Amino acid sequence: MTEPQPSVTSVALKYGLITALIGVVYTLIIMVANLGDNRWLSGLSYLILIAGIALAMKQYKTINYGYMSYGQGLGIGTLVSAIFGLLSGIFVWLYTAFVDTEYMSRMMEKQSEAFLDQGMSDEQIEAAMAMSEKFQGPLAMILGGLIGAVIIGFLLSLIISAIMKNNRPEFE
Fold first, then answer.
1. What is the pLDDT of residue 135?
2. pLDDT for the residue numbered 2
3. How far, in Å, CA of 168 to CA of 154, rounded?
4. Whole-number Cα distances in Å, 145 to 49, 152, 163
5. What's the pTM?
6. What is the DSSP string of the chain?
7. 103 and 121 in contact (C-beta within 8 Å)?
8. Other C-beta atoms within 10 Å of 135: how many?
9. Phi/psi at 169 (nearest 5 deg)?
10. Which long-range contacts does 161-164 make (Cβ < 8 Å, 24+ apart)?
11. What is the pLDDT of residues 13-70, one digit of tens each?
12. Over the Cα atoms of the chain, what is R_g?
C-alpha cells in the first residue's frame, strides 16, 4: 500500500514566497545603498534562489517519507524560481516607478560611463542606451524578472534535483 504523495505545488508556493521575500529585502538593501551596478552583489541574489530551491526540495522529501523523483524536484525548483522572479520583478518596478524614480537614470548614467571606458563611440552608446530604455517599462521589468528567473532556476534545478533525488523503490 502506498501513501498519498504531498503536493509539489504547495511546497513550491511556500518556499517561493519565502525566497522571494528574502530576495526582495536583499534587493532593497542593494538599491538603497546605490550598489545596483555591482555585479557581484547583484549576483548574490542567485545564492538566495539556490538556497530556496534546495530547502524546498528538502522539505518535500521530509514530508514524502524521504523520497523525491527527479521530475518532482525539477517542478519544485522551477515553481520556486517563477514565484521568486515574478515577485522580484514586481518589486523592482514598484521601487523604480514610485519610491526612487531617479534610480534607473542613475544606472543608465553609470552604464554610459562604463561604455565610454570600454572605448565605445558616442553613436554606439546612444544606440545601446536607446535599446535599454525600451526595457524599462513595467511589463518588461516584470516579465524580464520572471523569464530570467525561470530560465536560471530551471538550470539550477536540473543540477540540484539530480543531487537530491531519491526515487521510491519500484517494489515495496
1. 76
2. 60
3. 23
4. 13, 11, 26
5. 0.88
6. --PPPPPHHHHHHHHHHHHHHHHHHHHHHHHHTT-TT-HHHHHTHHHHHHHHHHHHHHHHHHHTTT-B-HHHHHHHHHHHHHHHHHHHHHHHHHIIIII-TTHHHHHHHHHHHHHHHTT--HHHHHHHHHHHHHT-SHHHHHHHHHHHHHHHHHHHHHHHHHHH-BPPPS--
7. no
8. 11
9. -65, 145
10. 161/57, 161/68, 161/70, 161/72, 161/73, 161/74, 161/77, 162/70, 164/54, 164/57, 164/58, 164/61, 164/68, 164/73
11. 999 999 999 999 999 999 999 888 788 998 899 999 999 999 999 999 999 999 999 9
12. 20
What sign results for the dihedral spanned by CA atoms 122, 35, 150, 83? negative
Phi, psi for residue 147 in degrees, rounded to 5: -65, -45
* Angle of helix 103-117 versus helix 122-134 axis, rounded to 10: 150
Residues 6+ apart with CB under 8 A from 17: 83, 87
Average pLDDT over residues 102-116: 84
- 166 DSSP β-pair partners: 68
Would you say residue 4 has pLDDT above 80? Answer: no
For the chain, percent of residues with pLDDT exceeding 70: 98
